[in-house]
Amino acid sequence: xxxxxxxxxxxxxxxFIFSSKKFxxxxxxxxxxxxxxxxxxxxxLKNNQTVIDLGAGDGIVIFASATEAFxxxxxxxxxxxxxxxxxxxxxxxxxxxxxxxxNIKIVQDDIFKMDFxxxxxxxxxxxxxxxxxxxxxxPWFLEKTILNIKNQVSKFSVVSYMYPLKFKANFNxxxxxxGKNKIHIYS
Length: 187
Ligand SMILES: C[S@@+](CC[C@H](N)C(=O)[O-])C[C@H]1O[C@@H](n2cnc3c(N)ncnc32)[C@H](O)[C@@H]1O
Prior knowledge:
GO terms for molecular function: protein-lysine N-methyltransferase activity; RNA binding. This is Methyltransferase domain-containing protein. The chain is an alpha/beta fold. Helices cover 35% and strands 20% of the residues. It has one domain: 3-Layer(aba) Sandwich (Rossmann fold), CATH 3.40.50.150. It binds S-adenosylmethionine.
């Protein structure tokens, strides 16, 4: 009986965290596993690049791309930003067993309030190739998020899963990859 009550409380806490606006203003939906090779290709991994997944979920994109970078012996850095404490726990556990864990950072933060420049600062310009933001967030939050990045980071590219940006004019190049869902690349 005691175990049953603890189990019910546990389920209620999980439901609360996943439905609470504080912890998940954007619901948790992972990118489609079938699109992972195309997403990794869209990120165009290279040395001295930082890939930041804004709202990283369970880390499906971060861990798949970190595996690719590891196999190609790239020094690409990966940062998973997530607000939901349960997903943060999942991300830390997955990172622990990842072969490329030294290049993966897990950060609990709010993508609408955070200081992006902390993660994109270059100590030596010649080693700062690029920062790529991966976004799979509700379309009505996309514009706000990109403007927020733009105010803090001078040079970056964006890979947006499923939803296109309304303001392509801010970028020089634009490409779409057709997977199960569309992958929009802006650089
Ligand atoms: C649609 S899911 C995408 C997950 C992952 N990027 C992927 O492609 O599989 C959106 C994620 O953003 C997280 N999230 C929602 N609001 C956030 C916020 N303000 N700051 C950080 N993460 C947030 C949610 O918890 C959820 O995991």
